[in-house]
Amino acid sequence: MTLNSYPFEDEKEENSKPIGRYPVPYKKDLPFDIVELMEEMERTTGFLPNVFKVLSYRPSEFRAFFAYYNAIYNKETGRLSKADKELIIVVTSLRERCLYSVVVHSALYRVYSKNPGLSDQVCINWRKSDLSAREKAMVEFALAISQADDITEDHFKKLEMHGFDREDAWDIATITAFYAMANRLVHFIDIIPNKGYYSLGRNNDTKQIENELTAPEV
Amino acid sequence: MTLNSYPFEDEKEENSKPIGRYPVPYKKDLPFDIVELMEEMERTTGFLPNVFKVLSYRPSEFRAFFAYYNAIYNKETGRLSKADKELIIVVTSLRERCLYSVVVHSALYRVYSKNPGLSDQVCINWRKSDLSAREKAMVEFALAISQADDITEDHFKKLEMHGFDREDAWDIATITAFYAMANRLVHFIDIIPNKGYYSLGRNNDTKQIENELTAPEV
Amino acid sequence: MTLNSYPFEDEKEENSKPIGRYPVPYKKDLPFDIVELMEEMERTTGFLPNVFKVLSYRPSEFRAFFAYYNAIYNKETGRLSKADKELIIVVTSLRERCLYSVVVHSALYRVYSKNPGLSDQVCINWRKSDLSAREKAMVEFALAISQADDITEDHFKKLEMHGFDREDAWDIATITAFYAMANRLVHFIDIIPNKGYYSLGRNNDTKQIENELTAPEV
Amino acid sequence: MTLNSYPFEDEKEENSKPIGRYPVPYKKDLPFDIVELMEEMERTTGFLPNVFKVLSYRPSEFRAFFAYYNAIYNKETGRLSKADKELIIVVTSLRERCLYSVVVHSALYRVYSKNPGLSDQVCINWRKSDLSAREKAMVEFALAISQADDITEDHFKKLEMHGFDREDAWDIATITAFYAMANRLVHFIDIIPNKGYYSLGRNNDTKQIENELTAPEV
Amino acid sequence: MTLNSYPFEDEKEENSKPIGRYPVPYKKDLPFDIVELMEEMERTTGFLPNVFKVLSYRPSEFRAFFAYYNAIYNKETGRLSKADKELIIVVTSLRERCLYSVVVHSALYRVYSKNPGLSDQVCINWRKSDLSAREKAMVEFALAISQADDITEDHFKKLEMHGFDREDAWDIATITAFYAMANRLVHFIDIIPNKGYYSLGRNNDTKQIENELTAPEV
Amino acid sequence: MTLNSYPFEDEKEENSKPIGRYPVPYKKDLPFDIVELMEEMERTTGFLPNVFKVLSYRPSEFRAFFAYYNAIYNKETGRLSKADKELIIVVTSLRERCLYSVVVHSALYRVYSKNPGLSDQVCINWRKSDLSAREKAMVEFALAISQADDITEDHFKKLEMHGFDREDAWDIATITAFYAMANRLVHFIDIIPNKGYYSLGRNNDTKQIENELTAPEV
Fold first, then answer.
1. Which of A150, A200, B91, C22 has CA atoms 20 to 30 A from the CA of F46?
2. Interface check B16 vs C, CB under 8 A
C-alpha cells in the first residue's frame, strides 16, 4: 500500500515505550477496510488513537469492536448528549483504574462539555463535583451497571426523576457495559494513551476540534 | 411473516414471569436476518435462548452482539476447547452473580466436559474442585481479567507453565471481557434463563445434544 | 469386629483421592455406638457420608457433633420444613465456599424441595432465584446470623411479616450457627463429598429416596 | 424445686437490663441435670455465667452445647495450655465483635496468663502485642479457621515451626469452630456479660480464682 | 543539664524493648522548652508518656504537635467533657488498630469516666456497649470523620438530636482528624505504651490521679 | 483594617456557592498575624487559597495548622523535592477522595514537576503512570502510612533501595500523616477549591509561577 512501511506517524514520537503488549501490524499488511477506517479517524482527530493500532492485530475482532461501538455511540436518538456519553465512560473507567480510557475520554469530555475544570473534578470525586443533579443521577446508574449490581425498578425511578426514560436507561447501560469490556481489554493489552490527548480540550482551540470530532473515537 | 403473531414457543410454557424487563418484539416485526439467525439457533438447541428474544428489541445492537460473539467464540485456531471457553464464562459470570449466564453456560459446560459433577463443583468453589492444574491456571487468569486487575508479565508466565501461549491469553481475555459486558446487560435487562437449560447435560442424551450444538449459544 | 477390615464400600470407588486430611480409622477399631450410627446412616442413604468417616477420628467429638446436630435438626416442633433447613444450610455454606456442605445439602434440598432447578439457582444467586418471599426472608435472616451481624428487633419484625415467630427465629439461628462451625471443620479437614450426592435428587427416583431419608444426614 | 423461685442471685444486681433477648426460665422449672451443672459452675466461679441461664431456655440444646464444649475444652492431651485456649477464643471472638465472649474469655485469659496488660493489648492489636512468636503463629492459624479460609499444607508447616503438631492443629481448629458457632448464638440472643468478669484477673486474688476455675466456663 | 545523662526513669524498667524505631535523644541534648514541658508532664502523670520522648527527636515537629494538641484538647468552651474527648480518641484509634493511642487513651477514659468496664466494652464493640445514645451519636460522627466520609447535613442533624451544635461538631472533627495524624505517626515510629497506663484508672486511687491530670496527655 | 469589609477578591467571582460549611470571618475582624500571613500568601500565589479563609474561623487552630505545615513542608534538609512532596499529597489525598486537596496539590505538582500529563496520569492510576521507580517506591510507602498499615523494617528496606534513608522516611510519613488530618478537615468543612488552581501549571507561564511559589501553600 505504501513504500514507507513504518506504520503510524504518532508512534515515532513516543518510541521509547511500546503502545501495547502485542505487536502492532504494519499498515501495509492490514485489510483495506481497516486502513480506511484508520485513515478517516486520523483525519478527524489529527492522530490515530492507539486502540485502533493495537486492536488491528486481530482484524475480525477489530471490526466487531468498532461496529459495536458505532451501534451504541453514534445512535441518533435519545437524550444522551456526547458529553453525557463521555462522562459515563470516564466515571466507569475510573472505577476500573483504566489509564487509557480515562485519558482519552476525559479529553473528549473536556471537548464536549467545554469545561476542563469539571472534567478534572470528576476524575477526583464526582460526588463533590459541580455536575448537575441530572448528571449525578446518570453517573450513579452507570456505576450500578458497572458494578454488576442487581438492577431493580428503583434504579429506573431515580432516572425518571431526572427525565431519563427507559430508552435512555438502555443507552446508559449499553455504553457502560461496552466499556466494562473495553477497560478489561486495555488492562490486558496494556494500551498507552496517545500524547495528543493530554492537552486536548484544554486550550482555546477546543471549538474547532469539537467540530471535527464526528468520526468514532474509542 | 406469520399469521400466528405470538413470538416464541418456549415462552408459552413459562408465561407466569416475563423473560426480561423490556418488551419482546413479535417475530413478524423483526428484520429477516435476525429471524433467520433465531431459527437456525432454535433448530440446533431445540429452543430459542432468551437472550436472542430479548436483544432483538434493538436490532442493530443484536447484530453487533452476536457478530462479536461469533468472532471470538467460533474462532477456529488456538488451544481453548469449547469446554474451556464455557468454563471461563461460568467462573467469571459467577463472580458477577449473573443467573442467566451461569445457568446457560454451566449447562453447556456439562455438555462439553461430559462431567456434570465438575460443573456443580465449579459453581460452589472452583479452587476446591477437581479441575486440572491447567484449567485452574486458565480460570485464575480469567478472573484477573474479570476483576480488571493490572495485568503483568507474571500473569503470562503462569499461563505458559501450563502450555498457554500469548494467543491463548488473548482468547481467554477476550471471552472474559465480552462476558463482563454480557453479564452487565443481563443484570440490566433481567433476563430469565430458559427452563430447558436446567436439565441440559445432566442426562444420557448428552452425546446427541453435543453433536447438534454447533451454532452460537450465548 | 469384622473380617473385612477395609472401612467403607464407597471409598473403594474414589480411591484416587483421600476423603480428608486426617487418617480415617478402620471400622473394626471404632467404638460400638459409632459403628451403629454409621450403619444406620448407610442403610438409609445408600452410602455413608464422608463426614461420618472423617470425624470418627476423634470419637468423643464425633458423638458431640452428631448429638448437637440431632438436637437442632430433628426437633419435631416449629415451622421449618426439611427443605427450609437444607436451604439455610446451602446458602450459608455457600457464603463460606464450603464445597462439601453445599454438595451434600444442595442434594438434600433437591430431594425435599423436589425442585432441582431451584437448587441450582440458589447456588448461583438466591436473590434472583424463584424462592418465595417467605423463603427469601428466611435466607436473609440466616445470612445475617452467618455474618455475625448485630441482630436487632428489626430482624425479628421482618421474619414475623412472613409468619416466622421467635421460636422459628431461634431454629434458623441455631442451624446457621451450627453450620458456621461445621463449614470451618470441613475447610480444616478438607472433607471431599461422596460421589453419590451429585446426582441425588436429580432423577425420577427422588420420591423413593425422600422416604428413606429419615436418619440424620450431616 | 425451691421456695424462692427467683432464679439467680447475680441477676438481681443488674436488673436494669435483661441478660438476653429470650426469657430466662425459673430454676425450679429446669431439669435436674441442668440445675446440677449450674450449681457446680456457680460454686467454682462465684457466680453463674449468663450463657448458662440463657441457653437453659432449650434444655436439649443446652446439654448439646456444654457436652461439646466439654469434649474439646477439657481434653487432657495436647500442647494447648488453658491460656492458649482462652487466647484463641478472645482473638477469634474479637473478629466477630462478640462482646459477651470477649469480656468472659479475656477475663479468663488474664487469670490463666497472669498478664492483664497482655490481654488488653490483644484486644487492641494482637500483631503489635507482646505475644510470643509461638502464640502469634497459633493466633494466625485460628484466624484462618475463623475466616473459613481454604486451609493448605502451608498452614500446618507454619504451626510445626513453633512446635504444634497435627493434633494441636485439630484442637486449635475445633475450639475456633466451636466459638464461631457460639459467637453467632450470642449475637442472636444478645447475651450480656456478668458484671463479675470485668474485674476478674485484674486483682491480686487471681491465684486463688485460678485454682478454683476447674469446671467448664463458656 | 544533668550529670546522669540517661534520659528517662521509666525506660529503665522496660529496657528489653525500645520504645520506638528512632533513637530517643538524651535529655541533656534537648532544647530547654521541650525539657520544661516534659518535666511538667512527668510531675502530673507520674511518668513521662513515651510519645514525648520519641517525638523530641525532631524538636520543631515536637513543638508543632503539642501546640496543636493543646489548641484543640484544652479548649475551654464547648460541650465535650474530657471523657467525651478520650472516648473519641479511643474509638477512632481502635479503627486504625493503634496500640499506643488506645492503651493511653482508654486509660484516660477510665480515669475520666470512672467506669473501667465501659472502657473495656468500647474496646470490644462500642455498639453493644453501655454508652448512652448521646455518646453513641458522637462516636458515630467521629467514625464518619475518621473514615474520611463525605460529610453531609444529615450528619449534623443527627448530632443536633443529641444536643451537639456546630461548634461541638467542629471539636469532634478536629480531635478525630488530629488523631488520624497521630495514629499514623505512631504506626510509623512504632511507639510502645508506658507500662504505667495499663493499670491507670483501674484502681481505687483513680480519684487522686484524676485531680492531677490537668496537663496535656497525648 | 479596610473600608471595604468584603473579605477576599476571589470569592466575588464564585459567589454562587459558599467556599465551606462554616462562615468565613471578615478580614477586618481577624487577628493581625493571620491577616499578615494571608496577605503574604495572596502576593505569592496571586489569590488566597480557600483553606486560609475557612480555617481563620478558629484563629488558634489556624495558627497551629500552618505552623505544623511549615515545620514539615518547608524543612530545608532531606532528599524530598517540592515535586516529591506534592506527589505524596496528591496520591494520599486521592485515596481519601479529597477534592480540595487534590485540585490544589495536583496544580502544584504540575508546577514543580513541569509535567501536567504526568499529574493527570497520577490522578487516574499511579501504578500505570510514567512515574520513576523511585517515585513509585515513595508513593507506595506514603500509601502504607495513609492506610495506617503496621510499618515494618521491610518498608524501610524498599525505600533504601531507591536512596531514601530513615530521615526521608520520616519526612514522607509526616507529610502523609499531616494530610490524613487535613483531608478529614476538608471533608468536614466541605472546602471548595479556588478556581485559579484548575489552570495552574498547565500553561507556558508555569516557569514564572514556580519562581513565585515560595510561601506556604496548603
1. A200
2. no
Q: Is residue D91 part of a domain?
A: yes
Look at chain F and count its residues. Answer: 218
Residue B68, exposed/middle/buried by CB under 10 A (0-12, 13-18, 19+)? buried
Question: What is the count of residue pairs from C and D with beta carbons less than 8 Å apart?
Answer: 101
Cα dist from B217 to A58, B50, B83, C102, whole Å: 22, 10, 13, 29
Give the torsion through C-alpha atoms of F211, F216, F217, F218, to 10 deg. 160
CA–CA–CA angle C152, C158, C162 (5° rounding): 145
Please state at what angle helix E166-189 crosses helix E153-160, rounded to 10 degrees. 110
CATH number at C32 reads: 1.20.5.810
| Binary contact (E177, F181; C-beta < 8 A) | yes
Q: Chain B: nearest CA to C170, how far in angstroms?
A: 27
Interface check for D124 against chain F (CB to CB < 8 A): the answer is no
Chain D residues near residue C96 by CB distance under 8 angstroms:
148
Report A:141-170 residues touching B (Cβ under 8 A).
Answer: 145-146, 148-151, 166, 169-170
* DSSP type of residue F147: T
Which residues 19-38 of C have a C-beta within 8 angstroms of D?
22
Q: What angle do CA A118, A122, A127 make, to 5 degrees?
A: 110
Chain center to CA of E3: 32
A217 inside domain: no
The tens-digit pLDDT sequence of chain F (218 residues) is 233 333 444 444 445 689 999 999 999 999 999 999 999 999 988 999 999 999 999 999 999 999 999 999 998 889 999 999 999 999 999 999 999 999 999 999 999 999 999 999 999 999 999 999 999 999 999 999 999 999 999 999 999 999 999 999 999 999 999 999 999 999 999 999 999 999 999 975 555 555 555 444 55
In order, the DSSP letters of F50-117 are: HHHHHHTTSHHHHHHHHHHHHHHHS---SS--HHHHHHHHHHHHHHTT-HHHHHHHHHHHHHHHS-HH
Residue C124 forms part of a structural domain: yes
CA end-to-end span of chain D: 25
Q: Helix, strand or coil for residue A15?
A: coil
| Chain B residues within an 8 Å CB radius of A176 | 184
Mean pLDDT over the full length of chain C? 89
Judged by CB atoms closer than 8 Å, whether chains meet at A145 and B65 is answered as no
Q: CA-based Rg of chain A, rounded to a whole angstrom?
A: 18
Classify E69 as helix, strand or coil.
helix
F97–E188: do the CB atoms touch at under 8 Å?
no
Rounded distance, CA B45 to CA B40, Å?
9
The CA-based angle B133-B137-B140, given to 5 degrees, is: 135
Domain span including residue C50: 9-62
pLDDT digits (tens, 9 = 90+) for A34-80: 999 999 999 988 999 999 999 999 999 999 999 999 999 998 889 99
pLDDT at A91 > cutoff 80: yes
Residue E186: inside a domain: yes
C-alpha torsion sign, points E85, E91, E95, E97? positive
- In terms of domains, do E196 and E119 share one? yes
User: Are residues B108 and B44 both part of a single domain?
Assistant: no
Q: What are the tens digits of pLDDT across the range B134-188?
A: 999 999 999 999 999 999 999 999 999 999 999 999 999 999 999 999 999 999 9
Reply yes or no on whether the pLDDT at D213 is more than 80.
no
Q: Which of A1-15, B164-178, D3-17 has the highest mean pLDDT?
A: B164-178
Cα–Cα distance list, C88 to C115, C178, C201, D192 (Å):
16, 11, 18, 27
Across the D:F interface, residue pairs with CB atoms under 8 Å apart total 3
User: Does A160 lie in the same domain as A95?
Assistant: yes
